[in-house]
Design a protein that fits this description.
The structure holds three protein chains of three kinds.
Chain A: H1 18-29, H2 33-55, H3 87-123, H4 125-138, H5 143-154, H6 158-184, H7 188-195, H8 200-237, H9 248-255, H10 263-291
Chain B: E1 10-23, E2 26-39, E3 43-47, H1 54-62, E4 69-78, E5 81-82, H2 88-97, E6 99-102, H3 106-109, H4 116-128, H5 132-145, H6 151-156, H7 164-176, E7 182-186, H8 194-208, E8 214-219, H9 222-228, E9 231-236, E10 239-245, H10 246-251, H11 256-264, E11 314-315, E12 321-322, H12 327-331, E13 359-369, H13 374-378, E14 385-396, E15 401-405, H14 412-420, E16 427-432, E17 435-436, H15 446-451, E18 452-455, H16 459-462, H17 469-479, H18 485-498, H19 515-528, E19 533-537, H20 545-562, E20 565-570, H21 573-579, E21 582-587, E22 590-595, H22 597-600, H23 607-615, H24 656-660, E23 665-667, E24 674-676, H25 681-688
Parallel strand pairs in B: 3-8, 3-9, 6-7, 7-8, 15-20, 15-21, 18-19, 19-20
Antiparallel strand pairs in B: 1-2, 1-4, 4-5, 9-10, 10-12, 11-12, 13-14, 13-16, 16-17, 21-22, 22-24, 23-24
Helix pairs in contact in B: 4-5, 5-7, 7-8, 17-18, 17-19, 18-19, 19-20
Chain C: H1 2-28, H2 34-39, H3 45-55, H4 61-73, H5 87-122, H6 127-140, H7 144-161, H8 179-213, H9 216-223, H10 228-257, H11 260-266, H12 271-280, H13 284-312, H14 314-317
Helix pairs in contact in C: 1-13, 5-6, 5-8, 5-10, 5-13, 6-8, 7-8, 7-11, 8-10, 8-11, 9-10, 10-13, 11-12, 12-13
The chains are: A mainly alpha, B alpha/beta, C mainly alpha.
């Protein structure tokens, strides 16, 4: 039996609504300095991604040859690159590129991964074995390699990158969800629900899903950070992403030969991807602490 | 205030100790102003329920409180040594050499990656500076001393390869091999079967006999304390409320809490027809939130105005104290915390005519095949089978309670789950109200489901922590009884009232309720759709003693009102004998004896029942019996002994017939008892006639 | 335990076969006719047909698959379409390079990571733990092209510009370079790979240590009067490091083939770059060979990890 008092304040007295829960979550994220920083960074980048074209002073491919290779100045906050493109605009628009792609890919992977994970975990038996073994073979290759292989076949466009992210991350999400389901399934209240004749779908959604959400939210954040990582790396390798896309990885690759002349063209995209990844990771860690 | 008794050396002296834990920025007191004194050769019991502070006290003596705990006030002296003044290095000197601990959970207290023998050797080498060779010899000697079969083999094993009883013996060896001055036992037998408990307790007693070791025995089990301890201190909600010799405490408790505790345990021989259990009202206060004045005030049946001032420890006679303002009145029997017995409402007279049996269990067996190991596959041996339940037969009559008693591995939970459809049976049939009951849960329709409900052991797992109490209660009402939401809502309020919970609880989440309250909700949920048969699987085993009685009373009342049948499963024979109309004793998947509770205590007994009965510690210090020791551990249902399942441990083994042939069911002419044994009942009666179980020497 | 291992081994075979099938099918779908690529656009239809016959491309898919599988297992990996050189020696050379890099990366990262993790775990919530935890959290997700370039900037250009001895920024080594010769060129790419591993392993070790410290057997060990250091090393770490060892074994798989970006940044001739080369040029046989080697390496590393875990954990080794 517990020797620690249960909370008696009514913040948890009544089952709260979704809105309250979200604002409570934000408040908790901001309670600790590290996760506050991470969350702020992440939100700022998301904001940049959404507002992209509105705040970028120049187009992503606007070449002003006369102003090429200029260091950061009040006109060009991040300077211009070798060809004469405004680095700041490209970084902002790159946020939209990478974050939207990563975001949508993560969302799809999470949705499908959860469905598979629920099915596998709850049904057990052949369905479980079948799903998990297939996923295990997919996981036999490192994500980047699998991505490269698939992109080599499916063709190299934004949509194929999206498909690749989804395929690569579904197995991981499914595995995580499945382990939660397996942990919850034998508990007394699930059996009680079965004994009252509840249908299987209702049990899955009413009894088990609430347990999945906390782990899933942490995992989603982590997947998001990996997706960004993956897209950036693909950009750097010039696979699936072609110039003149403002993909940060690609920008770094393109700037590399001219690094001594225009170091800022390399620095800012590199800093951008690093910052956003760090931000999301810190936020994910904050989420993890809250959930446990 | 400390008590001094004989001139014996004082081993441990605790003075006004206050210990607090830090939680969310606040300091919560777990132990308040507790003093006690243990002498050499004395076994001192420290009794309390959860939240009493008993474990905290033990850990404080060890100075192993962890980062969250802190000793705020008081003194602890081990002999002449001031324990609170020691630094880390000095403490490590004291640990192991002067103080030893036998903890509650032996499995997790042993390093899973080291062999058992090595862990014992490590203790010896460190404390005795022995060479590896010598330490190993010593270790083997100690493993023998704690009566482990085949010590050499056990020493080679890893902890997970030996049973709980064996693990605890190893812990005892590790604790005693250094010949400490003070031995602390923290619930050492709580997780063990009753028949194993008896052996372990006797072993400990034997090993410390004649030594000047002081023993502090921490437990919630009052009955065990009477058998094992010389003195008892009772803790409630962080305070010491009574301290006396075991004899004095039990013959005449001088604090309402102690009285309540003693009175709330069903004793062997009590039945629901003869007595109503006296429950202590209310809940144990959470740590740090105790009532002002006397901590027991809010639950005390004889509390008066003066109780709003905190009582001091009153000297209450020769070497005893009580923290109750009215102790003297209790002593003089002017006032009794004992609530008057309510006479049991007269038994229902069964209507004429045939009624179908509520439940008929016919010859069911439940076997689980194990995966074959590689060597089995190669040798083409068939898969081993866990024979959890073997051809069990019983009936439950309408409106009656069948009690199923067994220890671990007996198969009792498997039977419950099979009846509920959560496990599949391998053979046999079950009939509910004379209609065949489909095996799988998914094949049972809603009407059938409504007839059969269950309450499980662990109330914390019984309710979904994300759903409100109301949500959980509404479900059976809407699904099984077909009520609409509004109808269900009002019924929920009714249900809560039936289980003595306020209607406001409907909007609460399970995390806010105590264990006892959660179990009440689980019971309310089970009764909600008015089932014909309710299966209760160890419903009170994980609850505090003071709460158990109220739950048992509740179950009794509800059954009486709704006239449904109960299948009550427990390892506690006394509780089962209290509640049941018929008792079935199960061992290793087979029934051993079926008897009415009134006849349970009279011979003839099945030898296993006899051992069980003798293992139950009586809460009467003047009657320290000689319990029967069963050899070895319960065999694993995979290696089922041939013939009679009990033959490998039976103290009354007849002969070869027991090992080869399955026993017959013999019926005792007088009582109607059914006994599964080869020994003729006449012989059993003769052997057992002088043994008397369950009598206490003081009035209830 | 033997049953457990047999299962894992069987699973390895199945995974490798499944992946080989996947690889085979996928490469079949690579757009573009192989023969046309080899012979050039102006080649006549007849020449193309002859080429198809020679390469066995006119046979049915299952036949092609099993032929290929059979050849692969016997070491005949054919000839690269783009370079016309035999594949086997090239892949082996690259494999060797990747192994060298992997070893250096492991040597750099593992001892440091484990130490950091243990220190962090033993000092929970103190500043040193906070630094290690947050630090590894920040580093673990950084793309290697960023960290690689940063390291180059610091240890190569930075040192050079100050007139100090510096490490090479370009690690392209000719085939057949020995380990010692290659060493200076291995350091920077290995450091880059180590950063990721370091962060990951340190975090894992920290969690493991924290978990084990909560266990009751630690109290038992303390109460024997053993010095704290003995308790930590002999009791806690023995159990806490078990999952870490598994992870290290699995990391070998990643180090062999997942370093594509690092190889790209440093121009290092490993398996990753070879794969990109093959993808770019639609060089089927080369791609198949490299992928199979990669998958095998990965699977073997996983199996090794399982084996190690089974041997070290008595509960699995001896069963219940």
């Amino acid at each position: 039996m517990t020797t620690v008092p249960k909370t008696t304040n009514n913040a948890r007295g009544v089952a709260p609504s979704l809105w309250r829960r979200l604002s409570l979550l934000l408040r908790k994220l901001y309670a600790r300095p590290i996760s506050a920083i991470g969350t702020t960074i992440t939100l700022l980048f998301i904001l940049a991604a959404i507002l992209g074209p509105l705040i970028a002073p120049y187009g992503e491919n606007e070449i002003i040859a006369s102003e090429a290779r200029q260091p950061p100045s009040p006109v060009h906050w991040f300077g211009t690159d070798n060809l004469g493109r405004d680095v700041f605009s490209r970084v902002i628009l790159g946020a939209r590129e990478i974050l939207v792609l990563a975001g949508v890919g993560t969302l799809l992977a999470v949705v499908f991964g959860t469905i598979f994970g629920l099915l596998a975990g709850y049904s057990g038996g052949w369905l479980d074995e079948g799903i998990m073994r297939t996923f295990d073979s997919l996981l036999a290759l490192p994500a980047l390699l699998l991505a490269l292989l698939l992109l080599g076949t499916v063709g190299q466009s934004q949509y194929s990158v999206l498909i690749v992210i989804v395929i690569v991350y579904i197995p991981i999400v499914a595995r995580v969800v499945r382990s939660v389901v397996l942990a919850v399934k034998p508990q007394g209240f699930v059996e009680a629900a079965r004994l009252t004749g509840e249908s299987q779908p209702r049990i899955l959604f009413r009894e088990i899903m609430p347990f999945v959400y906390p782990t899933l939210s942490v995992e989603s954040a982590v997947r998001f950070s990996y997706a960004i990582f993956l897209i950036g790396s693909l950009g750097f390798l010039r696979v699936g992403v072609q110039p003149p896309s403002p993909n940060w990885g690609l920008m770094v690759k393109e700037a590399r030969p001219f690094a001594s002349l225009v170091p800022w063209a390399l620095f800012f995209p590199a800093a951008a991807i690093s910052l956003v990844v760090i931000g999301v990771n810190l936020m994910a860690d904050g989420l993890k602490r809250i959930m446990s | 205030m400390t008590l001094t008794r004989s001139e014996k050396r004082t081993i441990l002296e605790i003075n006004e100790l206050t210990v607090a834990y830090q939680h969310a920025g606040e300091w919560l007191e777990a132990v308040r102003d507790v003093s006690l004194c243990i002498h050499g050769g004395e076994t001192y019991g420290l009794v309390g329920e959860s939240g009493s502070g008993k474990t905290t006290l033990a850990l404080a003596v060890l100075r192993y409180l962890g980062k969250q705990g802190s000793i705020r006030n008081g003194e602890i002296h081990l002999g002449d040594l001031d324990l609170l003044a020691l630094d880390d290095g000095e403490l490590r000197q004291v640990w192991g050499s002067s103080i030893s601990l036998v903890p509650q959970n032996p499995q997790s207290s042993l390093n899973p990656s080291l062999r058992v023998g090595d862990q014992l050797v490590e203790t010896l080498r460190h404390q005795r500076s022995l060479s590896q060779q010598d330490a190993q010899t010593q270790a083997l000697k100690w493993l023998e001393k704690v009566r482990l079969p085949d010590p050499g083999l056990v020493a080679e094993r890893y902890p997970h390869q030996i049973s709980g009883g064996m693990q605890q013996r190893v812990m005892i060896a590790m604790a005693l091999c250094t010949e400490p001055k003070l031995l602390i036992l923290d619930e050492p037998t709580t997780n063990l079967d009753v028949t194993t408990q008896v052996v372990i307790l006797d072993l400990i007693g034997e090993l410390i006999q004649g030594q000047e070791t002081g023993v502090l025995y921490v437990t919630h089990n009052l009955a065990v304390v009477t058998q094992v301890c010389d003195r008892v201190a009772v803790l409630y909600a962080s305070e010491l409320v009574e301290d006396a010799s075991t004899q004095d405490l039990f013959s005449k408790p001088l604090h309402p809490y102690t009285q309540g505790l003693i009175e709330s345990i069903p004793r062997l021989g009590d039945t629901k027809g003869s007595i109503q259990l006296r429950a202590i009202a209310g809940q144990i206060p959470p740590i740090g939130d105790v009532p002002s004045g006397c901590v027991f005030r809010t639950r005390c049946p004889i509390a008066i105005d003066v109780c709003e001032t905190r009582p001091p420890l009153y000297p209450a006679g020769d070497s005893r104290i009580s923290r109750c303002h009215r102790w003297h009145e209790i002593d003089q029997m002017e006032v009794s915390a004992r609530q008057p017995t309510r006479s049991r409402i007269a038994e229902h007279i069964s209507p004429n005519g045939e009624q179908p049996q509520t439940l008929k269990v016919n010859d069911i067996s439940v076997h689980f095949p194990l995966q074959r190991s590689l060597s089995d596959l190669v040798r083409r041996q068939p898969a081993k089978v866990v024979r959890a339940v073997n051809e069990v037969n019983f009936n439950v009559k309408p409106g009656k309670t069948l009690g199923l008693v067994g220890e671990s591995g007996s198969g009792k939970t498997t039977i419950a789950r099979t009846i509920m459809g959560l496990e599949s049976k391998t053979s046999g049939s079950i009939e509910l109200l004379d209609l065949p009951l489909p095996d799988k849960l998914s094949n049972r329709d809603l009407d059938t489901l409504r007839l059969l409900q269950m309450v499980s052991q662990n109330p914390e797992e019984a309710l979904n922590p994300y759903l409100t109490i109301g949500d959980s209660l509404r479900r059976p009402l809407m699904r099984l009884s077909g009520l609409s939401k509004t109808q269900a809502d009002s019924r929920v309020v009714e249900l809560l009232q039936t289980v003595l919970l306020p209607p406001t609880y409907a909007d609460r989440l399970p995390g806010q309720l105590s264990g006892g309250e959660l179990q009440r909700v689980a019971i309310a949920r089970a009764f909600a759709a008015n089932p014909e048969l309710l299966v209760l699987d160890e419903p009170v085993s994980s609850l505090d003693v003071s709460v158990q009685a109220s739950i048992l009373n509740l179950v009794n009342e509800l059954q009486y009102e709704h006239e449904n049948s109960l299948l009550f499963i427990s390892h506690d024979l006394a509780i089962v004998a209290y509640l049941a109309d018929l008792i079935a004793v199960i061992y290793l998947g087979s029934l051993m004896e079926i008897s009415a509770p009134g006849d349970l205590l009279q011979p003839p007994h099945h030898p296993y029942t006899e051992a069980l009965l003798s293992s139950i510690p009586l809460a009467d210090p003047s009657r320290r019996g000689t319990p029967i020791h069963l050899e070895g551990d319960i065999p694993h249902p995979v290696d089922l002994p041939s013939g009679c399942p009990f033959h490998s441990r039976c103290p009354r083994l007849l002969g070869e017939i027991c090992t080869t042939q399955i026993p017959p069911w013999q019926i005792d002419a007088e009582s109607g008892k059914q006994i599964f044994c080869h020994i003729p009942l006449q012989e059993l009666s003769t052997f057992q006639e002088h043994i008397v179980f369950g009598e206490t020497s003081y009035p209830r | 335990m033997s049953r457990y291992l047999l299962r894992r081994f069987g699973f390895l075979i199945i995974t490798v076969l499944l992946t080989s099938l996947l690889v085979f099918l996928v490469t079949q779908w690579l757009p573009g006719d192989v023969c046309r690529i080899i012979l050039g656009r102006e080649a006549g239809q007849g020449a193309i047909e002859t080429c198809h016959q020679e390469l066995g491309l006119n046979q049915s898919l299952p036949v092609q698959y099993f032929t290929w599988l059979g050849n692969f297992l016997s070491g005949d990996w054919g000839v690269s379409f783009s370079t016309n050189l035999p594949i086997y020696p090239v892949v082996m050379d690259r494999l060797q390079n990747s192994l060298m890099l992997a070893i250096v990366a492991l040597v750099i990262s593992v001892p440091l990571a484990v130490t950091l993790g243990v220190v962090a775990g033993l000092n929970e919530n103190k500043p040193v733990d906070g630094t290690i935890s947050v630090g590894s959290l920040a580093v673990v997700g950084l793309p290697e092209f960023v960290t690689g370039l940063v390291l180059i900037q610091i240890f190569s250009f930075g040192l050079r510009d100050r007139g100090l001895p510096y490490l090479p920024a370009n690690s392209s080594i000719p085939p057949g370079t020995s380990f010692l010769e290659a060493l200076p060129m291995l350091i920077l790419p290995a450091m880059t790979a180590s950063l990721v591993l370091l962060a990951y392993i340190a975090r894992l070790t920290r969690t493991g240590v924290l978990e084990e410290l909560k266990q009751p057997y630690v109290r038992t060990a303390d109460l024997k009067g053993l010095p704290r250091r003995t308790v930590i090393v002999k009791h806690v770490l023995r159990n806490a490091l078990l999952p870490t060892i598994t992870v290290i074994a699995i990391s070998i798989g990643w180090l062999l083939s997942g370093l594509v970006v690092i190889e790209n940044v440093f121009n290092y001739p490993g398996l990753g770059r070879l794969m990109i080369f093959a993808i770019d040029r639609r060089d089927l046989p080369l791609l198949q060979a490299v992928t199979m080697v990669t998958v095998l390496g990965f699977a073997l590393a996983n199996l090794g990890a399982d084996l190690l875990y089974a041997v070290l954990n008595p509960r699995i080794r001896l069963g219940e």
